[in-house]
Design goal:
The protein has eleven helices and no strands. By secondary structure, the chain is mostly helical.
Length: about 300
């Protein structure tokens, strides 16, 4: 009789173990947050999570494609949930959360990740990363040096994407990349002690002993000379020989592959509407006319 009782209880226990929609959604959000932190070591460091303090993000094409598959699986999981089972707070969270993944999945098709360089920031200004990192003790500086020793991998990933962009015609305007090229020169043709990367080591935290400062500065100069500068020289050569000649002379994003559709996607994303760019433009024109008429009525 006891064995029968156990047999009856097992399916009941299994049934009770199924997570509610509320629990499943919150666990999914927690899991995605953990992935964001582990996938973005610099971001993690900036928040004080130093588990990955010597690492960079994996920005390779392979990883980007893997992340896309992951985003699609998360979107599928979200679409399978019944939003009516969520409380008021999580209903709002759900709507925001699913929109992020819908945007991520849709944007992937336009392959703008094949344009990895920007005149407003990026690999050519990577020394500015220290502005958001904790550099309060000797180990923090040693971690940054170790991270710099892996900078070539980061640059190689950008070159890989840019090369693929050349092959597919997904390239930015040349006049903007000329600005990036000038910034790269400042990283490539410089002595270690005059490198932008060495600035972080010139005025170190006062809690660090002078003996440690001397050792850390020597290690920094060595890594900058042996790894950082050669990596930027490689990037400079790629820009000069391959990238700049391949960049487009036009300005509008419509001139990349599927550029018109990409622009329409951006209009939907940033206005959170289904309006077309032309419709948005027309609204702007009508508002300008309305405001002008109202202003003139006071004269």
């Amino acid at each position: 009789m006891k064995s029968i009782k156990y047999l009856v209880l097992i399916p009941l226990m299994v049934g009770c173990s199924q997570p509610s929609t509320e629990t499943a959604f919150e666990e999914l959000m927690d899991s995605e947050w953990s992935k964001i932190v582990s996938d973005n070591p610099v971001y993690a460091s900036s928040m004080g999570d130093l588990r990955f303090n010597t690492e960079w993000s994996d920005n390779s094409i392979k990883r980007i494609r893997e992340d896309h598959q992951h985003d699609q699986s998360v979107l599928d999981a979200l679409n399978a949930m019944d939003i009516d089972d969520l409380n008021e707070l999580n209903t709002t969270n759900y709507k925001l959360f699913i929109k992020q993944y819908e945007n991520a999945v849709e944007s992937f098709q336009y392959q703008t990740y094949l344009m990895p360089f920007s005149h407003r920031g990026g690999i050519q200004l990577e020394h500015e990363t220290v502005n958001i990192l904790p550099l309060r003790n000797a180990q923090h500086y040693l971690d940054w040096i170790e991270r710099l020793s892996k900078l070539e991998v980061l640059i190689d990933a950008d070159i890989e994407k840019a090369q693929k962009g050349i092959e597919t015609g997904t390239v930015p305007p040349r006049f903007l990349m000329q600005k990036v090229f000038e910034q790269i020169k400042l990283q490539a043709f410089v002595s270690p002690e005059n490198s932008p990367f060495f600035r972080a080591f010139e005025s170190m935290d006062r809690s660090i002993s002078q003996e440690d400062i001397i050792v850390i500065q020597a290690k920094a100069k060595n890594v900058i000379a042996s790894t950082v500068i050669p990596a930027y020289l490689k990037l400079h050569k790629f820009f000069e020989d391959s990238y700049l000649p391949a960049c487009r002379t036009s300005i509008g994003i419509k001139d990349i592959n599927n550029g018109k559709k990409y622009y329409e996607y951006l209009a939907r994303k940033f206005t959170t509407t289904t309006l077309t760019p032309q419709e948005i433009h027309n609204i702007g024109l009508s508002e300008v006319a309305r405001i002008k008429t109202e202003m003139e009525s006071y004269y």
